[in-house]
Amino acid sequence: MYKGGAVYIMSSPDKTALYTGVTSDLPKRIYEHKSKVYINSFTAKYNCVLLVYYQYFDTIEMAIAEEKRIKGGSRKKKILLVESMNINWIDLTEQLF
To answer: How does DSSP assign 25-46, residue by residue?
Structure first.
């Protein structure tokens, strides 16, 4: 049984809102964000529907630690992180399937 996790960043199309999250099932979680399953969530409210960054980890604990590190950083650091793997801020969802 896979016990890993992933950290990800979602963005609104105009890049004004960024959301950092962690999950053990990235494809499912991204689908939930894009479908706005949780209508009162931050991602639904601010239209964060583009997966612009993700990284897998061997354990969920490692992923949670990285999520906390990212969330503790500035917006500028988050932008640099996204652009380190996705300079054009394209939606990376298709890479998951």
So the answer is: -HHHHHHHHHHTSSTTSHHHHT
Assigned token pair, 9: 């960043």
Where do the domains of the chain lie? Answer: 5-90
Which class is 5-90 in CATH? Answer: alpha beta
Reported as a single tens digit per residue, the pLDDT across 31-60 is: 999 999 999 999 999 999 999 999 999 999
Q: Interior CA angle at 79 toward 57 and 86, to 5°?
A: 65
pTM higher than the cut 0.70: yes
Q: What is the pLDDT of residues 1-33, one digit of tens each?
A: 457 999 999 999 999 999 999 999 999 999 999
Neighbours of 68 (CB within 10 A): 13
Please, which residues have CB within 8 angstroms of residue 11's CB and are 6 or more apart in sequence?
A: 17, 18, 19, 48, 50, 52, 82, 89
